[in-house]
Amino acid sequence: MEDTKMEDSSNQREMSHEEMPETHSKGGLITMPFIIANESFEKVASYGLVPNMILYLIKDYHMGVAKGTNILFFWQAATNFTPILGAFVADSYLGAWFDKNATKFLLVNPDTSSDSTFTKAKKEKSVCRAFFNAGPACSPGAILFESWGGMILLWLTAMVPQSKPPPCDLMTQTCSSPTSAQMTLLFFSFVLISLGAGGVRPCSLAFGADQLDRRDNPKNVRVLESFFGWYYASAAISVLIALTGIVYIQDQFGYRVGFGVPAILMLLSALVFFLASPFYLKQQASKSLLTGFVQVIIVAYKNRNLTFPLPNSTASYHHKRDSNVVSPTDKLRFLNKACIIKNPEQDIALDGSAANPWSLCTVEQVEELKALIKVLPLWSTGIIMSINLSQNSFPVLQASSMDRHLTKKFQIPAGSYGMFNIISLALWVIFYDRAILPMASKIKGKPVRIGVKLRMGIGLFLTCIAMVVSAIVENARRKEAIRSGFQNNPTAVVKMSAMWLVPQFCLNGFAEAFTAIGQTEFFYSELPKSMSSIAAALFGLGLAVANVLASVVVSIIDDITSKGGKESWVSSNINKGRIDNYYWVLAILSFINLFYYFLCAWAYGPTGRQATKVKSIAG
């Protein structure tokens, strides 16, 4: 048995040695244009569908504002949640199949070598897990067969009259509700788009960072900070194109053309990514971290009655071979019971791994879960800001009732005002990266950066102000509509420029630039490198939770304010409704969240960079 272990260990070292030159010869800046182009095409296609969708649901499917808004919230939530669900399912089923069969081969053929069938099986296992878990390496396939298919179905709802309700009867002022079949087709298109888009959005960021991340490089922190900033800037420009170009096409040429163009762009997204496949640095896919977290919790509970080993008794804890972490830390000590070896002969397999990962975990698994738990409070502080940023439907309805003309012949589409959010975000990233930091560093005579916790706090404060401004502007718009006699006519255009909506979009753009980028950088730097995909997925998960909670908020406000036959604050007639009061509710929640952030930031203590005495303006 010992000889077998030594051979296997030798084989692993040999494999690592053989793969090392290939790893270092790939990745780098050459891959960036393809990764960013893939993400950009996807964003132009997907985000171009969102702004006018509320108008499409109201006018073509005869939905109320509250119902249409809730559908869009759940659609966005599904888009942000599907990558996490897919990773768990892939590892639970596909990964388990390979684990079972590879282990059987090892038991039958203990004398394995680096070129054996078992080695090939392990490589195949990595490839298959990469297909489901690594995201960007295979996400174009998901985009091609899922997002593209979903967009084709959505396009068909605009092309085929029978796929949606007939137009309203102008004589009787009655509208037919959509049938179950029509709603099923619409929802199925949304589901496919979410599955495809969800496969690339949270993963491409981590995948791109892996191409550049060299932690032995003294300039690595600056390289990653610059990458995160420019990645978001390029994504922002893509969304800007979607909010202007795609929305303009929908307004001028209708949804038949407006839904067809995104489908074509989705095909281009996949093709661009495949072109650079030979150049990518592809990390060997490993077991799903989400599954590992669940295992730690379950095993720790099963072992809750075990006594802890004596101090410095490292042999009692199970860890990976050649690992520098041989015993768990004392923080969240109850989780340490998940990696206690009860019976070495029964708990440890021939290759040194756990015989049953649902009965014994590694020290690394335990510490990774602890690291995740530590950042969760700060992660939760970004949810309220994400709720504010997800308010796409109401500003579109506001803009459609205001004067949008820039000249006598040209007016900005109602769905395009979100571009000011993106413009302010992109401008701040460029200004911060190319002007503020170089100037501050020159003045100080040493590298200077603004700490991530300070940046996140500034962003949360700005989103509070944005909601206050939103409430004030909507109150002024509604008063003007009532003064003009349009209380019963929500489609009438008031004599108030829609440019009054720009400040709230700009404030939210600055808030996102500070908090969203700061959070992503915080997660990526504070969590172990093995958790880079989790670091990227956390922001997407926050958006998903925010979308669900935003729907809950709208539903609660709609139910409470419409009791007794009263007009709902989120009424389909925005002139009778009180969207301004809805914004005030979000503003109050945002200020409460700001104080919650101060508490979490204080409890977290210094970040990893502060602990290593990296100079910064503030933390």
TrEMBL record:
Chain positions covered by the region annotation Disordered:
1-24
For membrane topology, the record states: Multi-pass membrane protein
User: Keyword Calcium: yes or no?
Assistant: no
Q: What is its main location?
A: membrane
TM regions (residue ranges): 185-207, 228-249, 261-281, 414-432, 452-473, 534-557, 582-605
User: What family does this chain come from, according to its entry?
Assistant: Belongs to the major facilitator superfamily. Proton-dependent oligopeptide transporter (POT/PTR) (TC 2.A.17) family.
The name under which this protein is listed is Protein NRT1/ PTR FAMILY 1.2-like
| Source organism per UniProt | Gossypium klotzschianum
